[in-house]
Amino acid sequence: MYLKVIKAIPLILISFLFESCNKDYYSVGIEIFDDQFEDLKVETFPIFSYQESMDKVQTNNLTNVHLGSYNDNFFGKINSSFISQLDISSFQFFGDLTQDDENNGSQLNFINENEQLTAVYLDLPFFNNTNDRDNDGVIDLYDVDPNNSSSDSDNDGLSDILETQAGTNPLSADTDNDGILDPDDTEINGYNADSQEYEIDSIFGNRNADFNLKVYELTYHLSSLDPANNFESFKEYYSDDDFYEKGFYGRKFYDGKVSLDLNEIPVFFKEDDPSTEDIDELNEIDYFETPRIRVSLDKDYFQRAIVNKEGTEDLQNPFNFNNSFRGLIVKASNFSDDLYMLLDILNARLVFEYEYDSYNNNGTSSELSDDFTEIKEKTSIIPLGGITINLFDHKDFNQEITNEINFSKENIPSKKLYVNGSKFVSKLKLFTADNSISDDLLELKSKNILINEANIVLHLDKNIHRENYQYLPNRLYLYSYNNGEPIEDYNKDFTIDYEVGAVNANKFLFGGFLQYDTNNNPTSYKFNVTNHVSNIIRYDSLNIDLGLTLTSNIDNPLVRKAYTSDLNKVNIPDASISVPFPVALYGSNVDENSLSNKLKLEVIYSEY
Question: What are the backbone angles phi and psi of residue 117, rounded to the nearest 5°?
Answer without folding.
Answer: -65, 135
